[in-house]
Design goal:
The protein has 188 residues and is of the alpha/beta class. Helices cover 59% and strands 13% of the residues. It has a 5-stranded parallel sheet with strand order 2-3-1-4-5, with helices on both faces.
Length: 188
């Protein structure tokens, strides 16, 4: 299974990515986790990534693609569950070109749909885990705005290609996983 998970920050992409990777025996690749791992490096890419993350902005396409290339290549045999990328139409088009050349195109795209009010609560609660991009209400609002402006157009892009399934992401992780698996089964 090669699956892309889309959703607002806090919609459960990371949790579902781990659950679905286990279910399918695939590799979970989180762009957010990769970026946060680079934050630990105070020089070079880590410093640059940190500037964008702290401001609630998207990290530039070339940086994200560079960071994701090796994990995706390593996951091709088992399959992958990719969460947090792409986030813009430009990223989707670039990623599609790269994926074609690598034989890594996605089988499906699952959109985890959840109301913004529920996401605000989740993100502010998650800040207790030390997530620098979640604890500030202004940054949370900026991240939601970026999703609606830059990422939401991906829904039409993937729908037009017959890859999109929409899943209600409210409820327990197990309920969302069951809905996701049912939607994928109906799609594939």
């Amino acid at each position: 299974m090669k699956l892309i998970l889309l959703g607002v920050p806090g919609s459960g992409k990371g949790t579902q990515g781990r659950l679905l990777a286990e279910h399918f025996g695939a590799t979970h690749i989180s762009s957010g986790e990769l970026l946060r791992a680079h934050l630990a490096d105070p020089t070079g890419a880590g410093r640059k990534v940190g500037e964008y993350v702290r401001a609630g902005e998207l990290v530039p396409d070339d940086v994200v693609l560079f960071l994701l290339r090796e994990p995706i290549l390593a996951a091709l045999e088992r399959g992958y569950i990719l969460d947090g990328f792409p986030r813009t139409l430009a990223q989707a088009e670039l990623a599609f070109e790269h994926a074609l050349s690598l034989g890594a195109t996605a089988d499906a795209v699952a959109y985890l749909e959840i109301p913004d009010a529920a996401v605000r609560r989740r993100l502010l609660e998650r800040s207790a885990e030390g997530r620098i991009d979640d604890g500030d209400a202004a940054v949370v609002e900026r991240r939601l705005q970026i999703f609606h402006d830059a990422t939401q157009p991906l829904l039409g892009y993937y729908s037009d290609r017959g890859l999109l399934v929409t899943v209600d992401a409210s409820g327990t992780p197990e309920e969302v996983e069951a809905r996701t698996l049912a939607a994928l089964k109906a799609r594939l």
